[in-house]
Amino acid sequence: MPDNKSLKPTESELEILQVLWDKGNATVREVHENLLTFKDVGYTTTLKLMQIMNEKGLVKRNDSFRTHIYKAAVNKEVTQKYMLNKFVSNLFGGSSSQLVMQALGDGKVTPEELDEIQSMLDQLKKKD
Protein backbone atom coordinates (compact mmCIF):
# COMPACT_ATOMS: atom_id res chain seq x y z
CA MET A 1 0.00 0.00 0.00
CA PRO A 2 1.39 3.40 -0.89
CA ASP A 3 2.37 5.76 1.89
CA ASN A 4 0.63 9.12 2.34
CA LYS A 5 3.29 10.93 0.31
CA SER A 6 2.51 8.84 -2.77
CA LEU A 7 -1.24 8.62 -2.09
CA LYS A 8 -2.34 11.41 -4.40
CA PRO A 9 -5.06 9.97 -6.62
CA THR A 10 -6.46 12.25 -9.29
CA GLU A 11 -10.20 12.84 -9.62
CA SER A 12 -10.44 10.18 -12.35
CA GLU A 13 -8.43 7.74 -10.24
CA LEU A 14 -10.76 8.35 -7.31
CA GLU A 15 -13.74 7.54 -9.54
CA ILE A 16 -12.12 4.23 -10.49
CA LEU A 17 -11.24 3.49 -6.87
CA GLN A 18 -14.86 4.13 -5.88
CA VAL A 19 -16.02 1.52 -8.39
CA LEU A 20 -13.47 -0.98 -7.08
CA TRP A 21 -14.35 -0.24 -3.44
CA ASP A 22 -18.01 -0.89 -4.27
CA LYS A 23 -17.46 -4.02 -6.38
CA GLY A 24 -14.39 -5.51 -4.68
CA ASN A 25 -12.87 -6.95 -7.87
CA ALA A 26 -13.59 -5.89 -11.43
CA THR A 27 -12.30 -6.05 -14.98
CA VAL A 28 -11.45 -2.92 -16.92
CA ARG A 29 -14.66 -3.45 -18.91
CA GLU A 30 -16.78 -3.56 -15.72
CA VAL A 31 -15.13 -0.41 -14.36
CA HIS A 32 -15.51 1.32 -17.72
CA GLU A 33 -19.22 0.46 -18.00
CA ASN A 34 -19.78 1.82 -14.50
CA LEU A 35 -17.96 5.07 -15.33
CA LEU A 36 -20.09 5.49 -18.47
CA THR A 37 -23.18 5.88 -16.28
CA PHE A 38 -21.98 9.33 -15.19
CA LYS A 39 -19.20 10.46 -17.55
CA ASP A 40 -18.14 10.17 -21.17
CA VAL A 41 -14.85 8.27 -21.20
CA GLY A 42 -13.19 6.01 -23.72
CA TYR A 43 -12.34 2.39 -22.93
CA THR A 44 -8.66 2.91 -23.71
CA THR A 45 -8.56 5.88 -21.32
CA THR A 46 -9.97 3.71 -18.53
CA LEU A 47 -7.49 0.95 -19.36
CA LYS A 48 -4.51 3.33 -19.37
CA LEU A 49 -5.57 4.96 -16.10
CA MET A 50 -5.89 1.58 -14.43
CA GLN A 51 -2.45 0.55 -15.71
CA ILE A 52 -0.97 3.75 -14.27
CA MET A 53 -2.81 3.18 -11.00
CA ASN A 54 -1.29 -0.31 -10.85
CA GLU A 55 2.19 1.19 -11.30
CA LYS A 56 1.46 3.76 -8.57
CA GLY A 57 0.28 1.03 -6.21
CA LEU A 58 -3.31 2.30 -6.00
CA VAL A 59 -4.72 -0.93 -7.47
CA LYS A 60 -3.56 -4.52 -7.75
CA ARG A 61 -3.91 -6.52 -10.93
CA ASN A 62 -4.39 -10.28 -11.09
CA ASP A 63 -3.15 -11.28 -14.53
CA SER A 64 -3.35 -15.05 -14.04
CA PHE A 65 -6.49 -15.09 -16.19
CA ARG A 66 -6.92 -13.96 -19.79
CA THR A 67 -8.94 -10.99 -18.54
CA HIS A 68 -7.11 -9.03 -15.87
CA ILE A 69 -8.95 -8.54 -12.59
CA TYR A 70 -8.30 -5.38 -10.59
CA LYS A 71 -8.93 -4.53 -6.96
CA ALA A 72 -8.19 -1.47 -4.86
CA ALA A 73 -4.83 -1.64 -3.11
CA VAL A 74 -5.64 1.30 -0.86
CA ASN A 75 -8.13 1.37 1.98
CA LYS A 76 -11.22 3.51 1.37
CA GLU A 77 -11.29 5.07 4.84
CA VAL A 78 -7.54 5.82 4.86
CA THR A 79 -7.82 7.44 1.43
CA GLN A 80 -10.89 9.47 2.45
CA LYS A 81 -9.14 10.68 5.60
CA TYR A 82 -6.00 11.66 3.70
CA MET A 83 -7.94 13.46 0.96
CA LEU A 84 -10.19 15.23 3.48
CA ASN A 85 -7.22 16.40 5.55
CA LYS A 86 -5.56 17.70 2.39
CA PHE A 87 -8.80 19.43 1.35
CA VAL A 88 -9.32 21.04 4.78
CA SER A 89 -5.72 22.15 4.90
CA ASN A 90 -5.71 23.64 1.40
CA LEU A 91 -9.16 25.21 1.31
CA PHE A 92 -10.02 25.98 4.94
CA GLY A 93 -6.58 26.73 6.37
CA GLY A 94 -6.75 23.54 8.43
CA SER A 95 -9.95 24.58 10.21
CA SER A 96 -12.43 21.70 10.49
CA SER A 97 -14.99 24.03 12.04
CA GLN A 98 -14.94 26.28 8.95
CA LEU A 99 -15.52 23.21 6.79
CA VAL A 100 -18.46 22.09 8.93
CA MET A 101 -20.01 25.57 9.05
CA GLN A 102 -19.71 25.88 5.27
CA ALA A 103 -21.22 22.42 4.73
CA LEU A 104 -24.12 23.04 7.11
CA GLY A 105 -24.68 26.66 6.15
CA ASP A 106 -26.64 25.90 2.99
CA GLY A 107 -29.64 24.66 4.99
CA LYS A 108 -29.91 21.37 3.12
CA VAL A 109 -29.36 19.25 6.24
CA THR A 110 -32.21 16.97 7.28
CA PRO A 111 -33.36 16.72 10.90
CA GLU A 112 -32.06 13.13 10.93
CA GLU A 113 -28.61 14.29 9.80
CA LEU A 114 -28.60 17.00 12.47
CA ASP A 115 -29.45 14.39 15.12
CA GLU A 116 -26.60 12.20 13.90
CA ILE A 117 -24.19 15.16 13.94
CA GLN A 118 -25.31 16.10 17.45
CA SER A 119 -24.75 12.52 18.58
CA MET A 120 -21.22 12.61 17.17
CA LEU A 121 -20.52 15.92 18.89
CA ASP A 122 -21.79 14.51 22.19
CA GLN A 123 -19.49 11.51 21.85
CA LEU A 124 -16.51 13.74 21.06
CA LYS A 125 -17.22 15.88 24.14
CA LYS A 126 -17.29 12.77 26.33
CA LYS A 127 -13.79 11.79 25.15
CA ASP A 128 -12.30 15.03 26.49
Automatic annotation (TrEMBL):
SUPFAM superfamilies: Winged helix' DNA-binding domain
Name by which UniProt lists this protein: Predicted transcriptional regulator
Similarity section: Belongs to the BlaI transcriptional regulatory family.
One GO process term, biological-process aspect: negative regulation of DNA-templated transcription
Molecular functions per Gene Ontology: DNA binding
Keywords: DNA-binding, Transcription, Transcription regulation
Domain of life per record: Bacteria
Keyword hit for DNA-binding: yes
